[in-house]
Amino acid sequence: MTRLRLVLCALAPALLLPPAAAAQINVGVTVSATGPAASLGIPTRNTVALLPTTIAGVKVNWLVLDDATDSTSAVKNARKLVSENKVDVLVGSNTVPNSLAMIDVAAETGTPMISLAAGARIIEPVDAKKRWVFKTPQNDQLMAAAVAGHMARKGVKTAAYIGFADAYGDGWWSEFSRAAEGRGIKVVASERYNRPDTSVTGQVLKILAARPDAVLVGAAGTPAVLPQKTLVERGYQGLVYHTHGVTNPDFLRVGGKDVEGAFLPAGPVVVAGQLPDSHPCKAAGLEFVRRYEAAHGAGTASSFGAHAWDAGLLLQAAIPVALKRAKPGTPEFRAALRDALEGVRDLRGTHGVFNPSPADHLGFDERARVMVQVKGGAWQLVP
Amino acid sequence: MSRRVAAAALAAALLAAPLLLDDYHLSLSCYIGMNALVAVGLVLLTGVSGLTSFGQAAFVGMGAYASAVWTTSPAVPAALGSWATSPWVALPVTLSLAALAALGLGAVTLRLAGHYLPLGTIAWGLSLYFLFGNLEALGGHTGLAGIPPVPVLGLALASPRAFHLLTWAVVLGAVLATRNLLDSRAGRAIRALKGGRLMAESMGVDTARMRAVVFLVAAMQAATAGWLYAHFQRFVNPTPFSLHAGIEFLFMGVVGGIGEVWGALAGAGLVTVAMQWLRDVLPRLVGQAGDFELVVFGIAMVAVLQRSPQGLWPLLARRVPPPPRRLDAGAPPLPRRAMPPRGEPLLEVRAVVKRFGGLTAVDGVSLSVRAGEIVGLVGPNGAGKSTLFDVLSGVADPDAGEVHLRGHAVQGRSQRAIAALGLCRTFQHAQLVTGMSAVENAALGAHRRGRRGVLAAAWRLDRAEEARLLGEAARQLFRVGLGADPWRPAGTLPLGQQRLLEVARALCADPCLLLLDEPAAGLRHLEKRALAELLGSLRREGMSVLLVEHDAEFVWGLADQVVVMDFGRIIAAGPPAEVRRDPRVVEAWLGAEG
Amino acid sequence: MSLDVALWLGQDGLVNGAIYALLALSLVLVFSVTRVIFVAQGEFVALGGLTLAALQAGRTPGTFWLLCAAHGAVALRDGAAALRAGSARGFGRSLLFHLGYPALLAPVLWLAPLRSAPAWVQIPLTLALVVPLGPATWRLAFEPIAGASVLTLLIVSVAVHLALVNLGLLSFGAEGVRTRPLSEARLSLGSVAVPAQAAWVVLFSAGLMAALWFLSRRTLAGKALRAAAMNRVGARLSGIPVALAGRWSFALAALVGAASGVLISPITTLYYDTGFLIGLKGFVGAVIGGLASYPAAAAGALLVGLFEAGASFWASAWKEIIVFGLVVPVLLWRSVAARHVVEED
Lengths: 383, 594, 345
Hints:
Oligomer: heterotrimer
Number of strands of chain B: 14
Radius of gyration of chain A: 21 Å
Mean pLDDT of chain A: 90
Structural class of chain B: alpha/beta
Shape of chain B: elongated
Number of helices of chain B: 23
Largest sheet of chain B: 6 strands, mixed
């Protein structure tokens, strides 16, 4: 019996954790720090560690959990954060399915939630459930429109798409095909590949056979290199576009000269240093990059971390307002925080200017994206 | 602590949980329940029947998606009214869909041999997972949202508190039904599937059908878990149904103890709680810098399995001994077959030939057995006796020749068809379900004398018949001298007694022709004498026996006729007194033994 | 489809198939000797590539710390066994090897200018770092329960896979790597200009496979391995140390995995979790070959590679469905061909 008792004793703390004390604000964060979206989750977690621990004089606890890029775990984490840690707001997760899965928990318990995933479906349409949900990354639609617009200006008549066989690739395909149609660009091929695939030769051959003027790679992080590398290897001469999902330093490291010349839409933070001083996002972007790189080394800041930074900015703007209406740890405070998030005006984030409204829980405009080109192994702002 | 008390404590804990635990721990408990439900199916499929499946997650996904589509899709006709969005209407739809899919996939999968079978499950498991992501109607890779909660008595079970009871009612229902099933006529047949298909077939079990049934049951349990998942999560996307999830279910089963139904619960509980607990504790110990959970989890599971390769359950079961079992002595005996009139030709073998490649194992053998006669088949090792048995019982098809049993030509017929005509056999190497008790092994022989199937067994509608079957088994055990400890696991019996158990099992079939393959090997002198007496009394009852035996004295004293084989041919046949004087016999066989 | 496209696809399928074939072979080897279906085989591919990339980037690869930890654990276990047995025989040697080996590597890693070193220095060093993890895995995870059922061993190997993948994530991060190719040259075959590295992959794989085959047929060690595979008790009776056979087969598996990783890292991007899918396809190939014969496993793996290349051209979104869907009829055909009733164990 002793061994069994030992096991039970070891498990007991997990079952009988004391509830967190009040008079401080608890922020529950779930990130995809392992699994397929780990490259998004890790910088997110690193960024959360840099966020302020007091806001408006009240102590803020950032509780971070990993969901392993699994929607079930994301919901488990959300439940745990809400019921055990009594969090006042949820932040996360990094992928669209995980965020969608968490909405029910947020709505059911009346907890505001700030998603770090791009899909517009997370916040649209704002209904009884989604009135609790906000997000910081640009909608794919905004970015896809930028890509299609840039293509049109470059005289592209036909385009091809190759993207992840997952929610990211799906989301970009539907937005890009719509945006391209709007610009009169014919999409002549649509191919998919898996993130860890070691070869995309088949897909690229199919694309080359369709002879597109431009190819859009709907992938995130270093896996986006392989299609372009294969295109270059097969002597493709047209334009290659990427999505804002590639904006981390590793993409440039792995891509090397193969990704030279690629265009992509991105949040202003990616080229914060090159922005004109008048750009509203310049200050926040530079601040984020400085703080992140001070902690993790030069050249490590990525736009994924910046989304979490923006979530931090939103909370820093909304919490003081909510504190005037109720005390943290109460349903009233959570409701007040929700209202305050919806009422944020002209908040200059790293990725854009937040102007949420009851009909739009993001509230970005054109200032939330710039076109960038890879030049000399670095991101270069396209004027 | 007895097992009954333990089960009552578990049930009480589950009932009380909504009062004691917070939402998070209740939701964890719900996930444990859903995982356990899938793992229970795997216990049946993999642990008991020996069919390793990595694809159960695909059935969970099918259940989840079917219900999600039914309750959210505008494609479901609006004329159905509130039915179109009701999870309770979706449940039978889901289950029928899963059943159809299981029948289709099972038809292919169960044809696969050896290692091809698990790989087959990987193949369709992966394919279905990618299919979920590729179908626009299922929300693609992003998923389907807005699934309604399950309503009970007008109350929507939205919170984990409410859902907890529903989940565990379903899980415990499934656990009990599965346990009931395994403790029944059909269950014994299922337990013989792993390693004993040949034997089971000769007892009249349709093993192909039983395998399909098991596959179907496991799939339906997985789909039910999927239904629960969809309405608890209220969002579905493909990732929870990936191959990794399929592996994880198997993982839970094996860690918990895949041989026992409760092992599934233990495994699902341990794996789910351990993972969540590590996620909780490790960051506090080593900081937020890295993700050590899965590393520690993997190492911990290796340690668990090194401690107990059979999984957790055997460790727990040792502390909670099962209650002693009793047999119902008052059950009326089973009806018996009318024996053919004494002297009637029962078995006619004409010029049977069986070749294996270049080797002719049986070469033109003819012999006959009359009703109420004991015929001894003797000859040195490799003379072809066991091969002849295989041909007679339908295990092997003869290359030429005819076999007539009670006037029916049976060469090339299935083992089951031959068993139906009243032939039952034992095997040279005892073919017992080693983990099953002696009396249940014996009752397997009476399989053809019962009717009740899987559903009746699951809901305990088979008890009257079951008592009669077990009563018959106990009687035959007693008859062969194994009546002392009917619940002893067959694998723990000494080899000689295992052979006697084979005889008892064959007697349970109430045959008119008994084929015994070296029943006396490994028996002590007194036991042999008892066996000879038993065979003699069977003969008096009108039963016929064809007996392969090495012990010459045993045969001479008992048989009415003796057939001597050597190198696949019959070299002598007739009454024992004549045959033992035959010079060829002396040379070929007796000479060797002096 | 033009001839051009067919050639390209054939080339692509061949290169991928060659890697799958290598993994299929070592899966067959490990399974036949130890009855372990080594799910973590693919992790060695990732570790090989990631370690080489770290060396080329001038970083100390996390594999070194992994090696230290694994060897430390093995030494501890040997120490505990020596304590229990009450005799230190053999423990001294174990200690010397398990602690001395990393100690020997450490100065090379820290002092030598590895970043700029030529490939013939970096690659052997990579193998020296990764390969010992194979036998260590065997010692730590499998040896204590070598007699358990195939299913239990499989589940242990899944647990090892989980631990190794996430150790890879911890040591190398989530982003991918690519290494410098051995040669930038391109060979032109007709209208198709094949990168020399692709030719290297195929040649090396073929060479390694031939070597494996030769080892198993012609050398004493290989014969002993095969004997251990066929009959454990018999092998032990005739004086073949079965425990050693386990270690050697895992060392070979690690070598094959790491070498595959080194070979393909210049032509694709490798991630900490790349290994699983590659390993799975190798496994599919091995099973198609019946998990017993080397040439059949290699042929099965090539078939998978070609299937995949074709499917990614015709219907990339449905690629995995097609590849794994096509596997089912092949399995059916193999099952019918196997004929006799195989009882699952």
